[in-house]
Design a protein that fits this description.
With 361 residues, this protein is an alpha/beta fold. Helices cover 31% and strands 24% of the residues. The protein is built from eight helices and 16 strands. Strand 3 and strand 4 form a beta hairpin. Helix 2 runs parallel beside helix 3 and helix 2 runs parallel beside helix 6. The structure holds guanosine-5'-monophosphate and zinc ion.
Length: 361
């Protein structure tokens, strides 16, 4: 849905299907610059998970009205709260943009000891609204749905008091390597100022449960450290999720895993080390064989191991040959609801023995 839109705009209120939404004056002017016309599709984001799209139904030099015909609520990303240093303005703005692209949950600047000598430094309400504009632009660019919650800058004491409980991490070159530690949600990542923390600050953070973690061997500038820290945390949280979930409960009740285990019967026509081929229960062609990885993988959308995918395809071609489909055949991976996938275990359909129409329905 979002990708069909020529442009996306930020709206302050959540929108529902059927609503007519007036865009801001600068957005209406931007529409003119993009040469968007009446009837063209645009996307809308409210920054708190609401994504919608609709068509332009009125256009003036300073106004634009969108009639919404699709709206969905996107779940928030993994909770990662960022404590950034009050620092050089431009570099903070750069980091704000990247933090929004990475879907950071919240952003709070902290006035560390060494933040105080920076000039010009990013603080105060005017700067905060600049941060917000940058984040909104980044959100629209990356078509994400959630804007980081932006808190005012705080002293170390206030920042610690307001930080969520959970996995508290302070990025510090003398800490243990960040990668590989057990990480639970929510994650709070504190990043120090240019020049580093004062010893007393590190002690105060440690006393508040922040563990010191390092990234890489060199001293990173604050914005690099923040981006790297968020990326490491994201990848650890993601692997933790997919690893724990798909293996334990998904495969338990999965029809195709049960076929692999031999719990339910199937007409198996071929196997290889990592893949199995069996006849479809409800064939749609004279030859209709399903080829699946033995390991549970939900769909092509779950970034399957290319080696496993290669083996599935190789077994599909073997089946086509042994089933006598010399005149041609079709291999199909239905993926996700719009792709018509009904069984949540990746599978290739090998169809043949009749002429296949194109395009498929
Ligand atoms: P999808 O619609 O997900 O692309 O394809 C799932 C296919 O699995 C369908 O063609 C359906 O007929 C087939 N299927 C569903 N349950 C079973 C089963 O228990 N045994 C076999 N052999 N095929 C099945
Ligand atoms: Zn399965």
């Amino acid at each position: 849905m979002a990708f069909a839109d020529r442009a996306a705009f930020f709206v302050e209120d959540t929108v529902a299907v059927g609503a007519q939404v007036a865009l801001s004056v600068p957005d209406a002017q931007h529409i003119a610059v993009l040469r968007l016309g009446l009837g063209e599709r645009v996307g809308l984001r409210d920054g708190v998970g609401g994504t919608a799209s609709g068509t332009l139904v009125r256009l003036g030099r300073k106004n634009a009205l969108v009639e919404v015909d699709q709206a969905t609520q996107v779940a928030p990303a993994r909770p990662i709260h960022l404590l950034v240093p009050v620092a050089d303005r431009d570099r903070m703005l750069w980091l704000a943009e990247k933090a929004a692209e990475l879907n950071v949950t919240s952003w709070r600047p902290v006035l560390w000891q060494r933040s105080r000598s920076v000039s010009p430094r990013g603080d105060g309400p005017t700067f905060r609204s600049k941060v917000r504009s940058r984040m909104i632009a980044a959100l629209l660019q990356s078509r994400s749905a959630w804007l980081p919650e932006i808190f005012p800058e705080a002293t170390i004491d206030r920042a610690i008091a307001a930080a969520p409980e959970g996995n508290r991490v302070v990025l510090d070159a003398s800490g243990t390597p960040f990668r590989g530690v057990e990480l639970a949600e929510p994650v709070v990542i504190a990043v120090g100022p240019e020049g580093g923390f004062e010893a007393a600050e590190l002690a105060e953070l440690a006393a508040a449960g922040f563990s010191a973690r390092s990234i890489g061997a060199s001293i990173l500038r604050f914005e690099t450290a923040a981006i790297a820290g968020v990326s490491v945390a994201l990848s650890m949280l993601q692997s933790r999720h997919s690893g724990a979930k798909s293996m334990a409960d998904d495969s338990e009740n999965c029809i195709f895993c049960r076929i692999v285990r031999g719990d339910i019967p199937a007409d198996i026509v071929a196997t290889s080390a990592e893949a199995v081929a069996f006849r479809d229960l409800d064939p749609k062609a004279p030859v209709h064989v399903l080829v699946i990885p033995k390991k549970h993988i939900g769909s092509l959308d779950d970034s399957p191991d290319p080696a496993v995918l290669g083996e599935v395809l190789a077994l599909a071609t073997t089946v086509a040959r042994t089933e006598g489909l010399g005149g041609g055949y079709r291999v199909v991976f239905n993926t996700g609801p719009d792709g018509g996938q009904t069984v949540g275990h990746l599978h290739a359909h090998v169809l043949g023995g009749r002429h296949m129409a194109w395009p498929p329905g």
